[in-house]
Amino acid sequence: MSVKIAPSLLAADFAHLAHEVGRVPNADWLHVDVMDGHFVPNLTIGPPVVQALRRVTSLPLDVHLMVEAPERWLEAFARAGADRLTIHVEATVHLDRLLRQIRELGLHPGAALNPATPVESLRYVVELVDQVLVMTVNPGFGGQPFIPGMLRKVAEVRRLLESQGSHADVVVDGGVDERTAPHLVAAGASVLVAGTSVFGDPDPAAALTRLRRTARP
Ligand code: DX5
Ligand code: ZN
User: Which one, of 73, 61, 64, 68, lies nearest residue 41 by Cα?
Assistant: First the structure.
């Protein structure tokens, strides 16, 4: 199974988003970080920007909701043209219900775990998700250092999925670069979200290709 690369637009130039999207034609998905200033101490973008992105790319839009009460936003992001919608386990007491709602809206559902959240919280929703996102930094900002202890967690998520016969993707997000990627893939990651290491490079497409190469399992 080949690894997918999802550049995170958080590290792109927000004044020229269409241009930035055009600089990563070799991406598998585009990762869009939505922050509400409550669940995480930062504010980013909402459905209108996703709608605008939808007009300029046919790449799958992988929307990562770092928001409280995500149930308020599922429909809006579906209408805006998101393909994949990941909600945080910590942001809802009705994870099962919301993952089913995302599926009913016709999107690929994902569940995300903050660094301190145990893998065990996913045990009874494995069959409902197409992806599990393991935060490898604390969510809220790009450019933070990778938390090495998360390698063990990635392996644990992969084991949990396999134990239930799930082929869901294991997405890693935060501090992913040419140095950390090979370890993450070896541990069981199948999608690498990369912000700074791709858009921080003068040639994002080349950086993405290098990342893909180092990540070859
Ligand atoms: C952080 C976001 C990430 C962020 C990763 O809360 O979820 O997607 O863009 O940025 P880098 O790759 O710079 O760590
Ligand atoms: Zn993200």
Answer: 68
